[in-house]
Amino acid sequence: VRGCSAETTSLPTAMPLSMKRARESEYASCCVLPTHWVELPLLQRTQINHDTQLLDFGLPEGASTLQLPTCACILLQAPAAEHGGENAVRPYTPVSREDLPGRFQLMIKVYQEWGDQRYPHSYRPAGAVSNFLANLSLGGCAQFKHIGANLKISYPFVGVRTITMIAVGAGIAPMIQALHKLLETKDDDTHVVLLYGNRTVPDILMRDRLELWASHPRFRFIPVVGSRWNTNVRVNMQAPKLPEGFEELSNPRLIHLSKELQEQLWGCTSNEERMVVQEAHLERHAEELRSLEPVAELGWVNQHVIKTVSYTHLTLPTKRIV
């Protein structure tokens, strides 16, 4: 790879048996990244929202596509970036297809320092690797490898008819990787429900892609927006407001029902009472809720829609891949 100092690897199409065995010890899968560190250049940076970037990295010399299995991740090492001065290593799941020519894409959420160091229980230092990447210049290099422990459940998911995905924030990346295969593979008949939680509407990552996929007959995308009940209500001691931009995500009738439930929950004095109120509200409106599209839900009443989806969509054998 031009501009990088690490050893590169070419991938001949035909190899003697001895070379194949050597390659098996050097590569954990069909992925072109070896089990030792290689430096790859940053080709492009795209700002997604206020704290998240899409980074395009090049491939090892001689490789045309990443060929990373679904579901699997890769390791990224930032030299001397750990807070104690050591090398920092983190796993990342590319959000690009495994056959994207000449590059792969990582979605990086940049974590800033949070809290006060005088109170260790509530203090979080800045993200070591995310800030290294945020400051990496175009053409600069990061170190990558792919090892056996990075392999998870492999696609295709044999015998599975319905998959439920639950993700929060940047944790959407492994779901995006799987959805590329599940929704874009011809003859795949798997049904998928994605519950995706974020604090605010602008925090919803890859929203354009997810809403495009939402038109697929086998995919249901349900964004869940808002803080937890205890954080948003009990600490602030005021009724939570509808998140800005929430109207864009959901059917107006569903928003009305969510507000109706929210008003009822505001009068509850215990978690047990809130559960009873939610169950009663669900029973009254279950049939209507099943027919409403698009669906989004407020974070502090999210069990309402989750249970509805469960009744409607999760009656087939399922596999949890988060």
N→C terminal distance = 34 Å
Q: Percent helix among the residues?
A: 25-40%
Number of helices: 8
- Strands ordered across the widest β-sheet: 4-3-6-1-2-5
Strand percentage lies at 15-25%
The main pleated sheet reads as: 6 strands, antiparallel
The rough form would be described as globular
Using DSSP, what is the number of strands?
11
Describe this entry's structure for a reader.
- The protein is α/β, with parallel strands linked by helices and 322 residues long.
- The chain is built from 8 helices and 11 strands.
- It has a 6-stranded antiparallel beta sheet with strand order 4-3-6-1-2-5, with helices on one face. Strands 10-9-8-7-11 form a 5-stranded parallel beta sheet, with helices on both faces.
Describe the secondary-structure layout.
Elements: H1 17-26, E1 38-47, E2 52-57, E3 74-78, E4 88-92, E5 104-109, H2 128-134, E6 141-145, E7 162-168, H3 173-184, E8 191-198, H4 207-213, E9 219-225, H5 229-235, H6 252-266, H7 271-291, E10 297-298, H8 302-313, E11 318-320
Observed structural traits:
globular, 20% strand, 322 residues, 5-stranded parallel beta sheet, single chain, disordered C terminus, 28% helix, disordered N terminus, 6-stranded antiparallel beta sheet, 8 helices, alpha/beta
Summarize the structure.
The strands form 2 sheets. The chain has a 6-stranded antiparallel β-sheet with strand order 4-3-6-1-2-5, with helices on one face. A 5-stranded parallel β-sheet has the order 10-9-8-7-11, sandwiched between helices.
